[in-house]
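QA checklist item 7 of 12: single-chain prediction sanity check.
[x] sequence parsed
[x] length recorded as 346
[x] structure emitted
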Amino acid sequence: LRPLGTTTDGQTIFQVEDGGCVVLQRPDFTFDNYDIGLPFQMLSDPELLGITWKNGTVNNAQYNHADYGGCGPTNCYAVRTEEILKPTTRLVEAGKTNNGEIIYGLKDPNDKEYTDFLAASGYGADGHKMTMTELVSGHGIFYWKDPFNRWVRFTRTDFFPQAECGKPVIYLYPEKEMSVHVSVGLKGVMSVSEPAHGAHGWDVIAKTDGTVVNVADGKTYPNLFWEGTGVQYEIPKQGFVIRGTEADTWLTKTLATIGFTARESAEFREFWVPRLPKTPYLFVTFVPQENFDRDAPLLITPRPDSISRVFMEYRGLEAPISVVPLTLPKIVRKGFSVVEWGGALR
């Protein structure tokens, strides 16, 4: 934590260094997280900002002020230091807020920040391929200096696809049939679950073949699954570039190397292959398990002997790129084992 200032009653305001979050310490030594009330937010829609651009047009787009990666935001504020941003050489006035503050844009239309944004996102929220002209002319990125003298980056909400953790599927493999309680301690919002996860998770009879009987309704399910937001991670730069038409073949081979069973592989590919971008090439990688153990921990009783969580990330490519190959994760099956797979659903 780094002190940012004080409240009118003398409490110290802190910034969480790795996420830009603004917090106050409570008397019990826990912390409350606060959002800054932007002075140019429109009352009708907090994501709609009151800005008049330099060309005289009034903003009608929604923006957010966090960096996005994984299944939701990776921080509270996309804060950039002066050393990294170099505002005196890279920024130029782009407009003013409805309370007279200056909004800054990137001076160079070919700035690396634009190209990196396109490389990471690639497609707009409506699924079309984003162009540099659209990004620049549409004020896709701008900066504002907040009350704490921090440079905060804003990005247009409709200029990149939102994501959630798509159908993480959980298989329980006990050595003998047994009663098991499972819950996902998700930091974000669980949007879908089957059977219903509810506030307390699942109580099931787990069978050795991975199927479960849900105690609440007495029905048999092939696995447990959920979807939701709140898992934070940066997409690994290491990975693999494959032809889009060869995705199923490549995944069949790769999942076998990771340690998927034939059934797990078939169910993974049945769900994900149709949802991959229909582009000539694909970049595919796998996110480290520690991200999910941190933001969506699996709480299982009795405790498994091994838990393996495999999560795929991807983006469409119009042409192949050079990447460093990723060391593939490995599924461990020991005693009472648990296997989970999923991906970013856009």
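[x] summary fact logged: Helices lie at 82-85, 87-90, 112-121, 132-137, 247-258, 262-272, 289-295.
[ ] second reviewer sign-off
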